[in-house]
Amino acid sequence: MITVYEKKYLIEIQLSIHEIEAVLGTGYNLKEMDGNLPLIQAIAEELNIIGEAITQVNLLKGNLLASLVHLIEVSRGIEEDNGRVTLDDIRSVLINDLPPLKVAVQQLLMED
């Protein structure tokens, strides 16, 4: 059973994934990002929201989504804007981290 607060963060994650998919498609067409700085910034902002929500869920639920360390690190780098996050990092998160996160969030929300 998930709490109201956990559900709030899980829905935030789900909405951010939906926003990314609305722009890039569910297959994450990464060619759309080439040279498109506003799009990259918008996706980075959604990843930042996802990373913060994952952190909050982990605090509330005891590292429920702890396997997504790379996504959290990338989102923190985006938030700090220290230049350490590259376009390749963002692409890696889109390809490797978002698909299993999407499934995990859907499963958790269905348990409620």
Task: Walk me through this protein's architecture.
- The chain is mainly α and 112 residues long.
- The chain has one domain (4-111).
- The protein is 74% helix and 0% strand.
- The chain has 4 helices and no strands.
Task: State the order of secondary-structure elements, H for helix, E for strand.
Answer: HHHH
The proportion of strand residues reads under 5%
Mean pLDDT: 84
Portion in helices: over 70%
Straight-line distance between termini: 6 Å
> How many separate domains make up the residues?
1
Q: Which structural class is indicated by helix and strand composition?
A: mainly alpha
Biggest β-sheet strands, sense, barrel? none
Summed up, what is this model?
This protein has 112 residues and is an all-alpha fold.
For the structure shown, list the relevant keywords:
112 residues, mainly alpha, 4 helices, 0% strand
Furnish the topology, listing elements before pairings.
Elements: H1 4-24, H2 37-61, H3 69-80, H4 87-111
